[in-house]
Amino acid sequence: MKDFIVEVITVEDFERDYLKTFKNETERMDYTLFDILNGVFEAVDCYWHECLPGQETAFEISEQQLRKEVCEALVKINCIE
What we know:
By secondary structure, the chain is an all-alpha fold. The protein has helices spanning about 1-5, 10-25, 30-45, 65-80. It contains four helices and no strands.
């Protein structure tokens, strides 16, 4: 998540890797962490490469909005650890 926020990896790489990792996770986690990570999953699922900042809808978000939501999730994760 950090690499995506600071643009070390592309949005395409983050999308692919996050969805794969989240779907294949087998380790139990508490509800708070799951809720945060599920929110990122939903944001990644809403990401659309043609959506521009300011054109987001409830079903499509831009790369900029995805980056913002991932950043907010990381802050929440750091607060619970």
